[in-house]
## 1
Amino acid sequence: QVQLVESGGGLVKAGGSLRLSCAASGIAFSIDAMGWYRQAPGNQREWVTTITSSGSTNYADSVKGRFTISRDNVKNTVYLQMISLKPEDTAVYYCNADYRSLRDRSKYAAWGQGTQVTVSS
């Protein structure tokens, strides 16, 4: 199975930048799409962005033009560069990865433990 560990969260002022990282470890036949979700207090977890194994990306409208997702397939790491941060970006950010098991190629989803991003006004 695959484990995900996020890092890079913190406190930043509005207009500032942060870069999140998520490293995948473990054994799998393949790691397919990877992405980021976030959950603000009192809200449901929401999708932020996804990147496929070939590098295609999609973004939620709320972050387009400000967030950039990238991945290093050799390191099995996905990154989220965030600029022009707003107070409404404050949330716990979770890394997600879809992968296929080595045993039978079944598809699974892995989640990280989350990293807090706080944007002050």
## 2
Amino acid sequence: QVHLVESGGGLVQAGGSLRLSCAASGVILRFNVMGWYRQAPGKQRDLVATITSGDSTNYADSVKGRFTISRNNVKSTVYLQMNNLKPEDTGVYYCNAEGRSMDNRDFASWGQGTQVTVSS
């Protein structure tokens, strides 16, 4: 079983920055993709950014040029650097990881979420 724990959320003024971290634990053979999703109040959970095992990245149009996803394979951690934050970036940010565990089973896991609030 793979567990994901997010950290780094908080309250920030518009134009500010935050860095989210997501640490994975468990007996992991490999990650295929790791990513960040967010859910604003009353809305569905939407993709923010993903990064593959080959370091290909994908971003939602609304965050391109402002957010950067990266990962540290040694630490099994994925990061989301968020710059020039806007009030519409407010929401709960969830980490997601898909891959294969050492017992040769595919997994898809979610973290518990971390709140990001951007004030105007």
